[in-house]
């Protein structure tokens, strides 16, 4: 209904692809990192492996020697004590992030962009889906990432104004 686009009672999730894959990706205002397709459910060991083999090289690529703060949600593998220790051992500060706040997480919007660009893709299997995701991810520009990062003050204001309900972000 008109004027109710963000009303939680009016939102419905949908499935676009019969195939599914689990993927880890990262972004900064400098652009996107290479994707990691996961073969198993994410537990603490799997997540730390992703951090070691994908996040660390991506951080070098995106930041060089500059300092950065890592943002992640509070999934169990992310918030595990062993993962916190991994970040401390690697000298990587992690932003204190509230649970269940997709309106505040710019990468959720980036995934939305990827899904919209893939709207008419019809992969027949998981490998075709991965190839389509990789190709679409490669089209993301640093400017898009920068705009999403720059939108953070507006996102925060919108969530405060909506008292935690969904926003246009």
TrEMBL record:
Coiled coil: none annotated. It comes from the Eukaryota. Residues 19-130 form the Tc1-like transposase DDE domain. PANTHER family: HTH PSQ-TYPE DOMAIN-CONTAINING PROTEIN, TRANSPOSABLE ELEMENT TC3 TRANSPOSASE-LIKE PROTEIN. This is Tc1-like transposase DDE domain-containing protein.
């Amino acid at each position: 209904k008109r004027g109710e686009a963000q009303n939680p009672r009016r939102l419905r999730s949908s499935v676009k692809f019969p195939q599914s894959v689990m993927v880890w990706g990262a972004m900064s205002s400098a652009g996107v990192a290479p994707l990691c397709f996961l073969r198993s459910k994410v537990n603490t060991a799997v997540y730390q492996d992703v951090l070691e083999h994908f996040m660390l090289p991506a951080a070098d690529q995106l930041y060089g020697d500059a300092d950065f703060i890592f943002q992640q949600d509070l999934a169990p593998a992310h918030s595990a004590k062993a993962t916190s220790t991994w970040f401390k051992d690697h000298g990587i500060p992690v932003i204190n992030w509230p649970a269940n706040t997709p309106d505040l997480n710019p990468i959720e919007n980036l995934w939305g962009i990827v899904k919209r660009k893939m709207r008419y893709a019809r992969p027949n299997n998981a490998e075709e889906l991965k190839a389509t995701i990789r190709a679409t991810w490669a089209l993301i520009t640093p400017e898009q990432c920068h705009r999403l990062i720059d939108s953070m003050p507006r996102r925060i204001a919108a969530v405060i104004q909506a008292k935690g309900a969904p926003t246009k972000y």
